[in-house]
Amino acid sequence: xxxxxxADPDLAARYFTxxxxxxxxxxxxxxxxxxxxxxxxxxxxxxxxxKPIPVTIIARDYGMTACVFNGFLKTLGIQFKVGQTxxxxxxxxxxxxxxxxxxxxxxxxxxxxxxxxxxxxxxFLYDILKENGLFPKTEGGK
Length: 142
Known about the structure:
The protein has about 140 residues and is of the alpha+beta class. The protein has 5 helices and 5 strands; from the N terminus they run ααβααββββα. The chain has helices spanning about 1-5, 10-50, 55-60, 65-75, 120-130, and strands spanning about 55, 80, 85-90, 100-105, 110-115. The strands form 2 sheets. A 3-stranded antiparallel β-sheet has the order 1-5-4. It has a two-stranded antiparallel ribbon with strand order 2-3. The longest helix has about 40 residues, at about 10-50.
């Protein structure tokens, strides 16, 4: 084979061009596999936790504060604020995305109610944010 390539420079050029194209394709596929592995690992990590999650934790995944993240969810039409508490829009109610947590003072008096996200809700947020071009920092998100 080497003799054929040395005897025919055009054939050698074609083979080397094909080899380069194949290497470039493999490199691109390797990068895609890495990205998909990162996404799968993130989803696995999210789904392993069974407890409701405060928005602060989810917001940090995206490199944001809870305040900015909640505002972003508001602009996407997912939630709105009632007093000091964020609540889901009607379209997203009764889907198991959130639970409310009421915090009490030392005397047992209700202080504040916070909305926490379930794992199903966290996955919902992941999917809707992905559709809007926003990925968690673990996936190279901004």
